[in-house]
Amino acid sequence: MFRSWKAFLHALGLWLALGLRKVLSVDAKPVCDAVPVPPVTGYVSQGNLHLDAGCRYNLYEKAQATQCLQGSWIVMAGTSSLHLQFQNLINFLAPDEHHIKRDGEWFGEVAGADVVIENGQVIHWEVINDPIPECRPWNITLQSHTACKRAFNRLLDRAPLYSPGSFRITYFSAFFWHRTSLALEVVGEDRLWNGAKVGVVVQVGAWYNLCIDKFDNCPRKELMTMERDLAVQLFKDEMEEAFHQMGSFCMRDGRAQLGCSVQTGPRPADKVLNAYIEQAVASRQSSSFRLVDYIRLGQGMPTEVVRGHGSQMLNLWAWTIMLNAMCPANLAAPGSFAVWEGLCSATEARFENCPNYWPTCLLSQRCEKWECMNNAPCTLTARDPPVGGTEGLCDDSVDIADSAHSHLALMEMEWADSDACHRGGVRIRLWCLQHFEWFLPVISVLAALGVVAVQHAWAAWSLKTTVQHGKQTEDPTEDSEDAAEFEPDAAVPIEFPEFPETAYHDEPDIKPNAVELNGLNGFNADLSPCNMEAPKPPEVTPPEGDLEKGDSLEVGKRAGCAGESFTWMLQTCKAGNRYPFGLARFMASTHIVLGNLFAKGVTQPVYFFCWGFTWVPWFFMLSGFVLFSAYLKNPKEESMIQYVLRRSATIYPLYAISLIPAFIMQKSFGTMTAEWPTLLAQSFLLQAWWPTLTESALQTHCWFLSCMVVYWFFFKPIARALMKLDLLETFLLMSLSCFLPWQLLMSLSCFLPWLVVFVPAVWNQPMDWYKDHHFLSTDTALDLGVVMLKFHPLCYFHVFILGMLLAKLRQLLDQKALAYGADSRNPYLIALQLVAPLGYLFLLLVFNFEGFQAKVWGSELSARLSVLMPFQAMILFGLAGLPSLPLPLFSYAFSKLEFLENYSYAVYVLQFLCYAVWPKTGLVSLPLFLIFLYASAVLIVRCIQQPSQKWWANHTTARLFVPFILAASFVGLSFLPDPVGTSTSMPDIPAQRWIDNRSKDMRLELLDPEGQRLGARIINPSLAIADGQLVVVARRHRREVTKSSGRFRSPEGEVDAVFINQIWHSDLVVGSHLDLDLWPSGPGAQISMQSWTGLRTSTGGNWEDLCVAETWIAKNNTVIRHIVTGPQDPKVVSAGAGGLAIAFDSNPPKSDDGILCQRNAQGFADAATQMYLAMGFKPAKPGAPTAAYRLGYGHADVAEKSWIPFIYKESVFFIYTPLPHVVLSSTHDGQSEKVFSTTFRPLLRVLQDNPHVRIRGSAQAVFVHNSQETPNLARPHYLALLHMFDTSTGRYAHYAYRFAAEPPFMMLQLSSKLPLMEAAATPGGVPFAFASGLAVHNNTVVITYGAGHRDVRALVMTLDRLDEMFACSVYVNEEELEESRAEELAESSSVGSWSLHEVQPDRKKANDSRAEQKCSRKLVSMPVLVLPGPVSTARRLRCGWPWGAQLIMSVCLCSTTCHGWFVPESD
Question: Cis link prior to 827 (omega < 30° from 0)?
C-alpha cells in the first residue's frame, strides 16, 4: 500500500494528527468550574467565547434555560445596561415579545417592571411609571424610600400566584445602591412567591461616576458638590451597606437560593469604581455571592459595545455565565458551539434593521443604536463545532511600539517629525520630556533661593564692612518721615533697593502684569515696574522734592503697627500715599497668566480662568491713579518727552531683554510671524499703534507698553486739566464724561467701547460679532476693527483717565474725611472697609458663575473695555484708602504681602518664554508651571532687571541708542533663511530608495496630463492583474474653497448666510501596463492614466451631484459645506470571467435609485460616504457605461470606507473590518450580508492595550499559493493590508496580514510594520502614508500607496522578504483533511507540496535568525511538517504537548530520516 517506510511514517504522523484533533477539539475543553469569580477574560470569534482560562461554559438554549429557570424568580437592580439584560432575557425565553410593544421596554420609562413567563409566553407584565416622584431612581430620602417601597409592594401583589412552571423576573431601576436595598426588602417580604428560588443580579455604579465627574445630568446634587475623594468614599459606604444586606439574603440557605451576581460597570470610565466593587466582593465572595466582570467580558468583544451598552450577543453571554452558576450541568444543551441568528451583533446595529424601533424612536426624539440592536429578534443555538475550529492560530503579542514612527520618514529623512517638539522636521519647541514637568520648577526654585541667599549674605557683609570703617550714617528716614508727617508737601527721601548712587523715579512703579489671550487668540496686558526687595543702600534724595514713593515712606516705620493693638493702629497707621497694591497686582497677574494658558488649551476648562483678560483695564486704571496721586502731591515741571524717557526706565529694559530670547527661539524654530516692519516698530514700542502689526509682534502680549507710552506722553497736559476739579465736577466727569462737550477726547474714548454693544443691538447682530476675527488675520475691515478695539491705545484712554479721576476723588474726599477725625467712628473709614471687598465679591461672581457672564451686559469685548470698570475701580479705591485715615482692614491685610509687587512685571513678561521652554505639550500642571514662573521671575528681577534698570537710569544719553541698535539687529537678522522644512515649498521626496537588497521604495510614473492641467494630483492607486496585464485604478484629487452668500433655512428660521464651500474635486482614473516583468521599475514603466468616464449610477445617470455635508455656525450665520464631486479611493480586483470589479467609496449621488440625502437631527445635510461596487469594468474601454451599486451592508449614517475586496470562487467578498475579521458576501447589484466573523487575538490585545488606536482595512486582498517563498505559512492563503491610526498623534502605521483561503477566512498572521515613506501633506503637517493597492506577480510583491497626498509610490519586495516580516515561523493548516487525504499525501513523493515544506539550504541563515521569534516557544529551524488539524491541535502541539503526543514524536525523532517533524527544544 505504501511505497516506502518514509511514506508510512508520513501517513502515520498525519493519522496521529487527525486523531489528536478529535481529542483536542473545542468539545474537549473542560467546562469552567462554578467559582465566585467566573472567568471572563478572552475573546469572541465566530460568536463564541474563547477564555484565557482554557475552559468553556455550557450553553443553554431557550428550552434548557426555560427548564432551568422554571419556578425561579430573578431580581435585577441596575441602570440602562442591566435593563438591556432584563429585556434580552425576556426576549430569549419568550421570542414573541420582540413584536409586542410593552410599557417599560425602553430604559427611563419606568422605575420598575414585574414580568411572569409561562410556556414561552408573557402572562403578566406590570410596571411602576417613572414619573412617580417617590420612586425615581435618584430619590433616596427615607420618606421616599418608604413610599416607593409601598409602590413596589403593590406592584408585586398584582402578580399571579406562584407556579412551579412559571418564571418571574423583576427589574428595579437603581441608579444608586439604596434602590438595591429596597429591592431586597420588597422581595424578602413577598409571600405570593415565597416558594420560588430567587437569584439576584446587581449592576450599580455608572451614575455615581457621572456625579463624581460632575456631569450636568447627575441627579444627586450633593454628590456634585463633594470633592472627588469624599464622593468616592460615599459610594463605598453605600455599597458596603447594600452588600451587608445582600450577605444574608444571598446565602445558600437564604432567600436567594440561586445566589447573587454583582456585575462591574460597563464603561471604561467606571474603572475606579469597578476596582472598589471587586475589592468589596472579594472579602465576602462565595459560591452564592459572585462577581461577574461585565466590563472585562465586553473588552473581549469590543465591537459588541456601543456607548457603554452591550449587544444581545454580549448580554446573552453574560446570562450564559450566570446560568452556568444557577443551572445543573445536565440541563445544558448538547452542543458546545454557539450559533447566532438575527440582530445579535452590534456590527449590524443599523436602524433599518430595527423596523419596530426606528419609527417609534423618531417620535420620542431619542434614537440610540444601543437600543436598536436590542430591539430585534436574536436566537442562540448550540451546535457541534465546525470542522477546523475558529480560535485563530497565533497567540503571540503584537508589538506596535514603533508604530508612531516611520522607519524611513523618521529615521532617515531630515524633514520628518519625531515628536511634538518638531513640525515639518524642524524643532518648534526647546524640548519635549513629557514626564519631566517637575525638573524646571525644582531647578528654578533652587536657583532663586541661592541667589536670594547670596544677595543677603553680600548685604550683611557690606554692612559689616561699613561699620568697621566707621562709615555708618544715621538713617535719614526718621527726619524725612517726621518732615512728611508735619509738612505734607515737603520732599521725602526715596529709597532704591540695590540701586546705590542711581537716578530716582518720581512716581510709584507701574508694574505690567497682564496678558490676555482670549478665544480670538488676542493678547492683553498691563504693567507696573518692579520694586525690589533687598537690603537698603544709601539713599538718594531727588531734587525738586520729587515723590517717587509718595509721602508715605512712613509705611516703612508702620511695620511696627503689626505688633501693636488695633486701636493704636487706627490712630497711627495712616494710608498716606503708599498703596498696598502688591498682592492685588500679583493675583491679577496670575489670573491673566491662567487666562492665557486657558486660551492656549493647555489647562483644564475652568470657567474662572477665561476671565483673566479683564484685569487689563484695571492696570491701566491703576497706572493713572498712582501717577496722578504723585502729581497732585508734588507737581513737577518737565517736558512731555522728558517725562516719557524718565518713565521708560521702569519698563523698557526688561522688555528689550525679553525680546532677545523670543527672537532667537522663533527664528530658530521657524515660527516667526513678525516681519521686519513689525520688528522695527516694536523696538520703539509702536506695535499697538497700527493694527496690522500688533498680533504678529514678538512677545505679543507686550502690546500694552505701546499704550502706556501714549498715556505717559499726554499725562502732563491731562493732569493740568484735571488738577483743579472740585468734588462735584469730579463726580460728574467720572459718571457723565461721555456727554461733557468740553472734554471731547475723553468723550470719544469713553463712548467708543460702548459702540461694540449699541451697534450690534441696533442692527440686530450677535453681540459676539468680533469672534469672526482670527488671530493674525488682518484681511478685512472687521479684522482691523477688532484688533484696534482690543489693542489700540485710544480704546483704553478712558480707563487711564478714570484712574486719574479716582486719584482726584481720593484727594477731595480726604479733605472731607478730616472733618470727622481719624478714629474708628469716622463714616468714611467705615464705608472704606467695604469698598474693595464688594468689588472683589462681584468680580468673583462674574468669574465663577456663568449666570453672570458678559452677555448680561453686552459681550466679552465690552466687558474688557468698560463694563467691569466700576468694580475694578472699587478695588483700586478701596485698597488705597484715604491719605489721612488709617488703612482699611482689607488693605492692611494685603499690605503684609506687599513684597509680591516686586515680581509682577517679570511674571507677566516671562510667562510665554517660560511656556516656550516647558517640557510638556498638551495640558500643563498648573502648580508646577506657576512655581517655575514665579521662581524665574525672582531670578530675572534680581539678576537682570535690577542691573539693567540701574544702567538705564544712569546713562541718560546712551539709552537713547538702545532701540536703534535693537531694531537694526532684529531687522537684519530677520532676513536670515528660515530653518529647512518651514517654508511653504515642501521638501522633495526621493524618487527611489533601496531598503535592502530584496526591497525598495520608489515613485510610480503615473502620467495624467489632464490632471496636471487642472492642478490635481493622483493619489491612492490600486492594482490588479488581469488578462496578462497590470491595471491601475487611482483617484484624481484637488481641493478648492469658494465663498458666497444667500438665504439659508436655519433652526432660527430663514436667514441671510455666508456659504463657505470646501470642495474636493475627485474622480477615478485608470491605466494599464502590458509588460508585467518590466513594471514597476523597468524601462518604459510609465503608465498613462485617463478618466473613468463610463461610471454610472444604478439608474444609469452620471456620477455627479452628490449629497453634501453642512455645518451651521449660528453665531455668525455661516454655512460650511463639504462637497465631494465624485468617487474616492478605488480598489480593483480581478473576478476572472466576470472581468474587473472596482469597489470605491463615495457620497451618495442624488440621482441614484432610492437615495435620500442624509440629514442630522438639526435638519442639516449630513452625507456620509458609502461603499459601491461596479462589476464588469473593461480597462480598454473606460468610457463604456458601467453601473455601480451601493453595498447594502453597513451604516447609512456613518462613513463607510476601507473595505477590503477579495475574490473567492469567482465571487466578490469583502473584509468589512479587520477586528473582528468580518467577512461579507456580495452580489453584482450591491446586496451584501455578513457571513463570518472571527477574531485574531493578538490584534485584539493591541486594541485593548491601546484604546486610542483604530484598526482599519487597506487595499485589496490577493490569493497566494507559493509554499517555497512563504515558509512561514506554507499553505494557500490570502495576503491583505491593514493600518492602525493613532488618534492621539494622528499617525498611520501599515501592516500586511494573512488570512485563511477557506471559510471562515480567519486571520492567521500579522507582519511587522511596513516601511512606507511618509510625507506631510502641508507645511508643518504630520507626515503620513496611506496604502491603497496590493499585487503579487512572479514572487514579487508590490504595495502601492500615497505619501502625504503628494507622491504616488510603491513598496516593492520579494515574496520571501515579506514572509520574513511575519512573526510566527510555523502555522498549522486549519482545513479538515479526511483520512483518505492522509493516504494520498503519504503516497505522494512531492516534498514541495504545500503540506510538506523542506527549508531550502540557502535560506538556512534567514530561518535561523527567525528561530527565536515572538512565539512563546522555540522551534527547530530545519525541516517543518505542517500538520493538518484545528487550532486547538496546533496550540497543544506547539506550546504544551500532551504526554502521548510527546512519546510518539520522540519515537519518530529517533529516526534520522524523520526530518519533517517539528518539536520543542525542551518541554
Answer: no
User: Residue with C-alpha cell 528681577?
Assistant: 941
In this structure, are residues 529 and 604 in contact, taking their beta carbons and an 8 Å threshold?
Answer: no
Between CA 486 and CA 948 the distance in angstroms is: 37
Q: Hey, is 914 helix, strand or coil? A: helix
User: What is the distance between the alpha carbons of residues 622 and 811, in angstroms, rounded to a whole number?
Assistant: 15
Q: How far apart, in Å, are the Cα atoms of 1345 and each of 497, 676, 1332, 1354, 1408?
A: 68, 42, 5, 6, 32
Burial class (CB in 10 A: 0-12, 13-18, 19+), 513: buried
Beta partners for residue 42, in sequence order:
51
Three-state DSSP class for 392?
A: coil
| Number of residues that make up the chain | 1467
Amino acid sitting at position 555: V
Mean pLDDT in consecutive groups of 10 residues from the start of the chain, 1467 residues: 48 46 54 93 90 93 93 94 92 84 73 92 87 71 80 92 94 91 92 92 92 85 86 92 89 86 89 91 90 92 89 94 93 92 86 77 74 87 73 58 45 40 57 75 90 87 74 38 30 30 34 33 33 36 34 37 48 66 90 84 75 83 89 84 86 89 83 85 88 85 86 88 77 53 42 57 59 66 79 85 87 84 78 90 82 53 70 88 85 87 88 85 82 91 88 87 90 78 57 89 89 85 87 90 74 77 92 73 73 92 90 82 92 85 93 75 84 91 92 86 93 94 93 91 86 90 93 92 88 92 92 89 78 91 88 91 74 38 39 29 38 32 30 33 35 33 32
- Nearest in space to 1213 (alpha carbons), one of 1173, 1254, 1255: 1173
Cα–Cα dist 1203/692, whole Å: 50
CA dihedral of residues 157, 159, 161, 164 (deg, nearest 10): -130
Residue 568 to residue 586: CA distance in whole angstroms: 29
SS3 911: helix
Identify any residues that bridge with 381 across adjacent strands, giving them in sequence order. Answer: 339
Q: What is the DSSP letter of 1136?
A: G
Strand partners, 1033: 1022, 1070
CA distances from 196 to 186, 249, 257 (A): 14, 14, 9
Pick from 1175, 1434, 1141, 1442: which is nearest to 1306 by CA?
1434
CB 1285 within 8 A of CB 1358: no
Contact (Cβ atoms closer than 8 angstroms) between residue 947 and residue 500: no
Greatest alpha-carbon pair distance for the chain in Å reads: 132
* Cβ neighbours for 645, distance < 8 A, ≥ 6 positions apart: 956, 959, 960
The string of DSSP letters for 917-975 reads T-S--SS--HHHHHHHHHHHHHHHIIIIIHHHHHHHHH-TTGGGGHHHHHHHHHHHHHT
The neighbour count for residue 726, using CB atoms within 10 Å, is 10
Of 1100, 1021, 944, nearest in space to 1347 by CA: 1021
Among 1171, 1167, 1327, 1196, residue whose Cα is nearest residue 1257: 1171
β-strands 259-263, 110-118 pairing: unpaired
Torsion of CA 620, 624, 629, 635, to 10 degrees: 150
**Within 989-1094, where are the H helices?**
1009-1014
What's the pLDDT tens digit per position in 407-466?
A: 343 333 333 344 556 554 555 666 666 677 788 889 999 998 999 889 888 888 888 787
What's the alpha-carbon Rg for the chain, to the nearest Å? 40
3-class secondary structure, 75: strand
Grid cell digits, residue 369: 443604536
Return the bridge partners of 383, or none: 337
Residue 576, CA atoms < 13 Å, CB-side half-sphere: 26
Cα distance between residue 225 and residue 214, in whole Å: 8
CB 1206 within 8 Å of CB 1215? yes
